[in-house]
Automatic annotation (TrEMBL):
Signal peptide: none annotated. This is Nuclear transport factor 2 family protein. GO terms for molecular function: oxidoreductase activity. The lineage of its organism: Bacteria, Pseudomonadati, Pseudomonadota, Betaproteobacteria, Burkholderiales. Pfam families: Ring_hydroxyl_B (PF00866). It comes from Pusillimonas minor. Keywords: Oxidoreductase. It comes from the Bacteria.
């Protein structure tokens, strides 16, 4: 039982650290959390279950994430001037499945995402689901799925990662 609690604490701490990296603009560190086969997915509907069969707000593998992360740090990314900042206010992540034997673990958390740039602020409610796999002393993101509360509405341009 103690090992399970320890694994659960590590999983929750990982999700908090991932969110903090985004809030601090540490996009390269955040990118490094993804497994080589990792995916960042924002479906258009919460009931969508097949990434490749339905339209998505965002569906990015590690290669596409690398391009976005590079763009975020590029000095000529004029749409990011003045600097875009974000904040994630999260409920404590819930461990849905913790595999202490090296398999996949799953977590979810409800959050409010805020993004601000030059007087423009967006606020989005969401639920994030994480699928993690052990990697050394930590974990890697196999999938981060973000279900937006208002995914069926008109959405403003979201510059950063939720």
């Amino acid at each position: 039982m103690m090992q399970t609690l320890d694994i659960q604490s590590q999983l929750v701490a990982f999700v908090y650290a991932e969110s903090r990296m985004l809030d601090e603009g540490r996009y390269r560190d955040w990118y490094d959390l993804f497994a080589d086969d990792g995916v960042y997915w924002v479906p258009t509907r919460p009931e969508h279950t097949e990434r490749d069969a339905q339209v998505a707000i965002a569906l990015e593998n590690k290669m596409l994430l690398a391009l976005r992360v590079e763009r975020l740090s590029h000095p000529r990314a004029f749409s990011l001037q003045p600097k875009v900042r974000c904040m994630h206010v999260m409920q404590q992540p819930e461990v849905l499945c913790a595999d202490a034997d090296g398999g996949l673990s799953k977590l979810s958390t409800q959050l409010v995402y805020m993004e601000h740039q030059a007087g423009r602020q967006i606020v989005l409610g969401a639920r994030a689901f994480y699928t993690l796999r052990p990697a050394g002393a930590s974990f890697q993101i196999v999938e981060k799925r973000v279900e937006l509360l208002n995914s069926d509405d008109f959405l403003p341009a979201i510059q950063l990662f939720i």
